[in-house]
Amino acid sequence: MEQVSAARVSSSDRRSLLRRTQLFSSYLVPVLYLLIHSQPAAGLVQSPPFMVKQPPTTEVLFQVAQRQDENDKPFLIECEAEGDPQPKYSWVKNGKEFNWQAYDDRISQQPGRGTLVITAPRDEDIGQYQCYAKNEFGTATSNSVFVRKAELNSFKDEETMPITADEGKPLKLPCSPPDGWPKPRVYWIQQNLQGALKSINSSRITVDPEGHLWFSNVTRNDRSQDFYYACAAFSPFRNEYKLGNRVFLNVAPISSSQNKHAPEIQYTTKRSTVALKGEDVDLWCIIGGTPLPEIKWARKGGQLPTDRVQYENYGKTLRIQDVDISDEGSYDCDATNGVGTPISHSVTLSVYAVPYFTVEPEIQNAAEGETVEFHCEAFGKPSPDIKWIHNGVPLEQAPLNPRRELVEGKIIIRDLKKEDTGNYGCNATNSFGYVYKDVYVNVLALPAEITEPPTDHASVDGKTVILRCRVFGAPKPLVRWIREQQELTGGRYRIMDYGDLEISSVTFVDAGSYTCYAENKFGSDNRTGSLVVKEHTRIQDRPEDYEVAAENTAIFRCSAVADSTLTLSIDWLRDNTTIDFETEQRYVKLQDNSLTIDKASELDSGVYTCLARTELDNASAEATLVVQDKPNAPELTGITCNARDATLSWRAMGDNRSPILYYTIQYNTSFTPDSWEVAYKDVPATESSYTVSVSPWANYTFRVIARNKIGPSKPSSHSDVCSTPPDVPFMNPDNVKGHGNRPDNLVISWTPMPEIQHNAPKFRYIVQWKLNDGTERWNREEIKDWRRSDLTVPNQPTYRPYLIRVRAINERGESNVAPTEVQGYSGQDKPLQAPENFTLLSVVDYKTVVVSWNPVPPESLRGKFEGYKVEHWTDDDDVEEVLFKNDATQAAVEDLVPFAKNYLRVRVYNTDHDGPVSRTVEVVMEEGVPGPVELFEAFPLGQSAFYLSWKKPEKPNGILKGYEIYYQKVQGTELGQRMRRTPAIDNPDQTLAKLAGLEAGTKYRIHIHAKTGKGQGEGYFIEERTYDTVAATLAKPRFSWSQQRTENGISTIRVNWKPNLEGQGRPGSHFYVQYKRYGETTYKSTDPELYDDFQDVRGLEPGETYVFRVVAVDGKVEQVSEPEEIYTHPLDFPIIVPPSDTTGWFIGLIVALAFLILILILVCIVKRNRGGKYAVYEREIAHGRLDYDEGGFREYSQPTDERSGRISMASDFRPPHESDTDSMVEYGDDGSKFTEDGSFIGQYGVKKKPDPNLPSPMATFASKDRIFHLLILNAAIPGKNMNPARFFLLNCEYQ
């Protein structure tokens, strides 16, 4: 094969060739790239011309200057081709060679192009034009275009035409629009006497395609008052309009009862119409009638293409967009208005098509000896004829080529030669137009060469990867790809026409090296590149569509993951535009990449995209934000005022993404200028006008408010003032009543009529009344103050029926409706007689009895008989009354006080007065069940317990026996099994309890019932939650204690735990006790007490000092109280039970002893002053008492007492060696000082630190108060008497 000589291609040639081949040859892309970017390695590539710009297939319009002051408007007829060598251009006009140079400077050709520039258009420029571009390799042919002059003629001069139409009837205003090209658009306007123009927009008024104006029905508002109706024609190309055909319209009014007309056809599309595929078609159906007919469209035998259908002119025009062949068929419009017979019109639509290519011919670049084919197929309706052009002439007129044949719409050229290079064009034509395309075949001979070798490429898994390998050569090189010595073919591998390798759904195993081989019969080339595959980026948490009301916050969440070696960033886009968070301060991107929009407005609505990207890929997810706001205020467009009504019209100004639900019309008047009232609330959202009623003699101002689900809009602007003429009143006062406020008068009352209902000046009331016995004439009084609401008529008999009426009147006359007569009564007096024989019939239960009485005579009532009142009370309660109907003579009276004496009586009553009472009946009610407790509270102690507190029932209804407590779990709206707290509380005075054994972090419903001998009363419940299992600090617990009766030589201490509800931390769910002997180091612990708040510590040795403390527990957390020392009394310590029948003797004994003690004290003082001593001290030393000083009285401490016992001391408190705990102060009424059987639990020893070297002695007493107390004890206990004088002297000796 002969080698093509090498030569350098100029840069302009490269650019020209690149533009041409990029558009029409995928194969030549690598060729052009080589020509532009390589050095002389590529050979010279020449080609036939190719059209890149050409005229349209339809027409080109131009405009000729018509006035001397009008400038010429140049226009172009485009033609531009690319090829090598540079092509030359020629033009044909109307089938003949067109020599544009003969037109002086008016027509020129752009340099380097074939485009004609007509700077001064003239009428002679009209014609059919076609361009040819030719070089030595072929001739390219452009589209053939008709150049036409655009013009718009004027209307004929005509006088204004007056037309009179009947109100309610259809009407046509004709228009004769002027000629023009393109066909002018015709519309109608209103022109006032000063020449100002106003558009017409009404559902009743329509302009048809021929320019006539149709009124579906005429209203009085359509009459020409200060304007004309004018027909106008507009040329969009010339941007020019002209006016003509003025009409002055008069409207003859008719009564509303006659204003009804059956539907009638005014203008419709012809029954058979034609449309072209791809264009829009309008089907018309203008129907007249009163009321305005409703028009519906349907397609026979099928559905309307809803995605391409629009309804114009308020439904009178059916527009089908982008018409398709499938749209052929019959379309019906049906019209009805509830008057007469509905009408229908049918239109048959036929669709034709301008030819278009289904298979286009393509540019062919091939080597000598190869075979090329030009395919050309087109569709049209009717079917197009296909003709071929070769180098600007019909194929049948071109030179013969034995290697070329025409077969079924395609040209085949075999065994290509260099001289086969040339242009071929395909033309498809039918009666509606044509389509044409010019291409070429270029015969080349070049060796295979890789112009863009593979590179090192990185991608992510799952994507489709293209490894670049652009080749150049003629014949077209064969491209192969090799990886690991294997050729890649089929499956996920595809070699593109221009040499690139496409790998679909890349995986990690695809990473590696790839080699591209290119080869043709003139040579070969190969290059290698690599592929790296990483993990793809993906969205984990996708944003979701969001709908929010304005001024609220919208939040979109988004998170993503990517390959760890890549840098991941997340951006947010709004409507495909990246959000600038610095300028959009209401938009905030949080640390978790969520997007927050503060105070969202309607303008924030849109599509928001979360874009996660790395250096290699990206992933995105979209969500739509709809911000809904109140509607914009409607625009009030007009108001028509009549004597009895006003018609408002308005225009919606936007619903802010939440559909309008309805409109509200409001008004105010000169009577109430600062108050807006509702004229009509629910005007349908589809309406844009509405008629409301008005009252005479008022100045009205109206406004309109739109409402959607978000709320009401701001009001529209105010309307003009509507002033109505005066008239008689249309109504009379409401709520007319007759009654008396004294036994001897009649008070007539009514509701004053507001000024808006006066209808004229000098408004007043006429009040009339008479006895309703048929004997009296009407009495009359005029009330001139319209604000007045009553009239008092004195000196009337007691409780007599009257007929009453009140009429409104003004200066125009009385109201036009008759006043309503009502019956009233004069004043009432107290009933004269009490019911007799008031008797208790039976007792039903502990709070209900049945009583009876005799009815009273009617003449004693002296008023409207309302019924009977049964009154009941107790000695401690106020009187309560129960009402019964006027026909009752027996009744059950409920809610008496149980367990008490109740008193009952009955009296009759009328509307204004109570009668005298009957005799009083007494009944003692039996005990009943109690009412609910008061102030029931539960305090969480920890994870598993509550501390319950309550108050006794306000109504015990008997003798309280105690309380029952129940509890059940609360799980959402479900209640668990009802459980009973054990043991029951049998002490009626107890108001505290612990509820234990519960689950942590659980909500409970807790019930409490008080009980008497009759059973449980009404329950009271609360709900509370236990603490969860989270570890928490506990408040330091507190406790009190008391010593129980000594049994079997063993002491027992009862410890009462006091949960610390006021401390910092939880009180704890339960507790246990720790104790030890004084001086020992190790505490002993009791078992945890889970259910009660006290615990008995048994097995203690009497006469010993112990250290006690309480440990509060909650789960695994514990808190220890302050320790306290407690002394256990000896075994023989007396237990005292004071006698109950010797109170007088006991008081006398105390007085005598007090006197005796006073004498002994004096003796003791005298002996002390003499310095005398007794041998008590030595005896104490012998028994181990070593801690007394010689001089003075030894002081002692007495612990603080509380109701519940001793309170634990501070941790740094040093206990005394002696304790004074047997004072009679401790033996008062406090129940905690006695055991359950009433025995005394006082303490008689001293607390003493044990000495390991000495036995523990019984301490002596060192206080005068102690002596006094013990003497009283000695006297009170039979069989245990000691000589008090001897005892006291011993103590004095000790001191």
Tell me what you see in this structure.
By secondary structure, this protein is mainly β. 6% of the residues lie in helices and 43% in strands. The chain is built from six helices and 100 strands. A hairpin with a 7-residue loop joins strand 61 and strand 62 (677-684). Helix 3 (1143-1169) packs parallel to helix 6. The model is unreliable at 1-43, 1132-1143 and 1171-1295 (pLDDT under 50). This is Neuroglian. The chain crosses the membrane at residues 1145-1166. Residues 1193-1222 are annotated as: Disordered.
Number of strands: 100
- The residue-averaged pLDDT reads 85
The unreliable regions are: 1-43, 1132-1143, 1171-1295
Binned, the helix content reads under 10%
Shape, please?
A: flat
Give the strand content.
35-45%
The largest sheet, given as strand count, sense and whether it forms a barrel, is: 6 strands, mixed
> Number of helical segments?
6
For the record, give the distance between the C-alpha atoms at the N and C termini, rounded to a whole number.
150 Å
Q: Which class of secondary structure composition applies to the elements?
A: mainly beta
Oligomer: single chain
Radius of gyration: 57 Å
